[in-house]
């Protein structure tokens, strides 16, 4: 699909996200010849410098995030010619005249404003764009998380941004939905007949969704201490993945048809009560330990951290969906920093066979499971039981694997590449609608309120492990285990 000519304006254009992800993603699309010849990227920042000086920074800061095999000197030179820099104080309406001067005056031009800024600036930027007549009917605005701290602040953002842009112009981005494996989960569910009869409570035992990071918070304690794992990861990424797994088949792959079904899932999540919160939610905070053989400090010892901080760096939740398809099936959501491995995966575990005829000749008999791996290596794994070679009827777990890199040899798109293309095309399917955002906050807010009221600290866990023991107890009460606890030893 050919893109219309555009001006992409990156607020926070000199920031970490722009340099590490957004500019490399746009370079990749330029290299793939997706961008119109006259398309431009306008990077907006607070510092007063020339475009030439900014491009020097792009060369030293952004260029290293592009793989050597993808770098083409001629394409890089062409790409850099697209980039312009505008110094602007986002809170000062008068400074937007510099941006207005830099923009092309073409009614047919697509204008995209990407707000890679703190959410406290969303309303200010949008209102100032409107005051300078820069919010045209062909404009779109992209909002990076966090989209609020709670339901009240999220609703305020929705109202403020909505006073300038229509809902069809607002793209609330969640980069996990741009990952190839998530796209393949949609294809797996709705492009094949094989799994649909099994995708329900009668055959599925439980679903586990894990996003684990080996990294700590580093120098982001200022942000993280006001956010925590629940706001940073669970309210958005994990709940969006849950929606893709659990939603009913949409009537078609159009934006509102898909988002209507995701909204139904969020509204069907069983609400927490004070009694169920203590049983179904675990929060933890990492202490000093070793990751990949390297000693690392605890969260409270990170640079700039509050030595008495109660901010969670780990959270595990047992969720239930009150629908005919999913009633009684537990969904376990888990995320944490300084964990034993860097991975993101969805595990759909099926129920055990009702009767084993191999009981006398088989050792460990594991239920079948489907594993959708999102990172670091994207792919699908179907775990089955199979007979081992030889005379005896002995069974062992085997793994039918589809590695996307091996199966599809064509170049692959990064999540931000795909999502930026969707923004430029005006395709809203993979972006959150305002009612989705509200429903997600409505479900997690009782957890935040409970933590604000209680006196206890998060459960400590040693860096380089899979989190606090309470997380294993959470799933153990249902007679289950996290996936890494069930894998047979090699």
UniProtKB/TrEMBL annotation:
Pathway: Carbohydrate degradation; pentose phosphate pathway; D-ribulose 5-phosphate from D-glucose 6-phosphate (oxidative stage): step 1/3. Residues 9-184 form the Glucose-6-phosphate dehydrogenase NAD-binding domain. It catalyses: D-glucose 6-phosphate + NADP(+) = 6-phospho-D-glucono-1,5-lactone + NADPH + H(+). NADP(+) binds at residues 46, 145. The active site is at residue 237. The keyword Transferase does not apply. Belongs to the glucose-6-phosphate dehydrogenase family. HAMAP family: G6PD. Catalyzes the oxidation of glucose 6-phosphate to 6-phosphogluconolactone. This is Glucose-6-phosphate 1-dehydrogenase. It comes from Actimicrobium antarcticum. The lineage of its organism: Bacteria, Pseudomonadati, Pseudomonadota, Betaproteobacteria, Burkholderiales. The gene is zwf_2.
């Amino acid at each position: 699909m050919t893109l219309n000519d555009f001006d992409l304006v990156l607020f926070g254009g000199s920031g970490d996200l722009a340099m590490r992800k957004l500019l490399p993603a746009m370079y990749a699309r330029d290299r793939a010849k997706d961008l119109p010849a006259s398309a431009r990227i306008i990077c907006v920042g607070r510092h007063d410098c020339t475009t030439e000086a900014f491009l020097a920074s792009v060369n030293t800061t952004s260029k290293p995030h592009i793989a050597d095999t993808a770098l083409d000197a001629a394409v890089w030179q062409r790409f850099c010619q697209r980039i312009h820099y505008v110094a602007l104080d986002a809170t000062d309406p008068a400074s937007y005249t510099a941006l207005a001067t830099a923009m092309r005056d073409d009614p047919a031009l697509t204008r995209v404003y990407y707000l890679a800024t703190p959410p406290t600036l969303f309303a200010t930027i949008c209102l100032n764009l409107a005051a300078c007549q820069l919010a045209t009917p062909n404009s779109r605005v992209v909002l990076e998380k966090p989209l609020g701290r709670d339901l009240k602040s999220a609703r305020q953002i929705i109202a403020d941004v909505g006073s300038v842009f229509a809902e069809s112009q607002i793209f609330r981005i969640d980069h996990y939905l741009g990952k190839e494996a998530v796209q393949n989960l949609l294809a797996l569910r709705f492009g094949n007949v094989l799994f649909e009869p099994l995708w329900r409570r009668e055959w599925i035992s439980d679903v586990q969704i894990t996003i684990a990071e080996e990294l700590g918070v580093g120098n982001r304690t200022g942000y993280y201490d006001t956010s925590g794992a629940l706001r940073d990861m669970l309210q958005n990424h994990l709940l969006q993945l849950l929606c893709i797994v659990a939603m009913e088949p949409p009537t078609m792959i159009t934006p509102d048809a898909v988002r209507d079904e995701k909204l139904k899932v969020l509204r069907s999540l069983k609400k927490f009560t004070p009694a169920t919160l203590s049983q179904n939610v675990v929060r933890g905070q990492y202490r000093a330990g070793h990751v990949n053989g390297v000693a690392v400090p605890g969260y409270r010892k990170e640079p700039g951290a509050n030595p008495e901080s109660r901010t969670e760096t780990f959270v595990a939740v047992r969720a239930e969906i009150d629908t005919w398809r999913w009633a009684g099936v537990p969904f376990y959501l888990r995320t944490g920093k300084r964990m034993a491995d860097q991975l993101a995966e969805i595990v759909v575990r099926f129920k055990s066979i009702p009767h084993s005829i191999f009981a006398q000749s088989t050792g460990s008999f594991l239920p079948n499971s489907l594993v959708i791996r999102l990172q670091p290596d994207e792919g699908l794994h179907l775990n089955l039981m199979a007979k081992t070679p030889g005379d005896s009827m002995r069974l062992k777990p085997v793994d039918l694997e589809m590695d996307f890199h091996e199966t599809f040899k064509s170049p692959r798109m990064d999540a931000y590449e795909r999502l930026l293309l969707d923004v430029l095309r005006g395709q809203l399917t993979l972006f959150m609608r305002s009612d989705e955002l509200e429903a997600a906050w409505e479900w997690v807010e009782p957890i935040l309120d409970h933590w604000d009221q209680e006196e206890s600290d998060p459960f400590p866990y040693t860096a380089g492990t899979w989190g606090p023991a309470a997380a294993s107890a959470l799933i153990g009460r249902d007679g289950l285990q996290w996936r890494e606890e069930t894998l047979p030893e090699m």
